[in-house]
Amino acid sequence: MTASVIPDYDETLRELSTDQGVLRYHEFGDGPPLVLLHGSGPGVSGWRNFRSNIGLFGEHFRCLILEFPGFGISDDWGGHPMVTALSALEVFVDQLGLETFDVVGNSMGGGVGIGYDLAHPGRIRRLVTVGGIGRNIFSPGPGEGIKLLQDFTENPTRDALLRWLHSMVWDPATVTEELIEERWALATDPGALESARRMYGRETFAAMIKMMNASDTPPQWAMMHKVTAKTLLTWGRDDRVSPLDMALVPMRTIPNAELHVFPNCGHWAMIEAKAAFERSVMGFLLEA
What we know:
By secondary structure, the chain is of the alpha/beta class. It has a domain at 9-138 and 219-286: Rossmann fold, CATH 3.40.50.1820. It has 13 helices and eight strands. The protein has helices spanning 9-12, 46-50, 54-57, 81-95, 108-119, 144-154, 158-167, 177-187, 190-200, 202-214, 248-253, 269-272, 274-286; strands spanning 13-18, 21-28, 33-37, 62-67, 101-106, 124-130, 230-236, 257-262. An eight-stranded mixed beta sheet has the order 1-2-4-3-5-6-7-8, with helices on both faces. Helix 6 runs antiparallel to helix 7 and helix 6 crosses helix 9.
């Protein structure tokens, strides 16, 4: 595939007013709707996750990069950002009038996509996940990257951010000075940092795990046999946030799923294995 140009940030930025606050998103390209959902972590945004991919994806799809509440771009809806993310997606696609659509979700974004499919069967045509779903089988949990994320949340220093960023990738050269600077700027925003502590503060995280273990509601990984969307699971073989063994449950239980593993690649397959990721995703989405 030929190299694609990164679209302009300001020209693609949109706002959507909701009862809970303003949702911001980026729109680029023409064709059937493709909703791109970002992961979690210090300084994350949908634009930073997918800006290098939508130039190509936009040649075939109307790309819609949603900025979830609680990450410093859209208005904060309060509560736990991983919980409000699903509600935000529901509001977003309904207000835009999307009856059916495709989804590419990185880490948490993939889990939100699965959650939406379970709640609204048939609305998502095809779903692409990038790491981050399933459950640990052979590796201990939480993964190394999650522990380093907690370290940063508890003590937000540049060194802590750098250690976490390096855990996200296989090749340290991926972590450029530009990446560090833009992540640092958003990660240390008071609102974004407070939101991050609602997710990854050690006491909060432990309480969430305890609540999930005590709940009568089955965990998401136990419900994946009900996913209706045709699904492409993508994974970095060297993912230190969500190790590859986590892919086994979704690969085996999602009824219509395939798995593509990228060598020499960490948690950000769409960035670190960009060309191979785009070939796999485009082939999957455009397949008749």
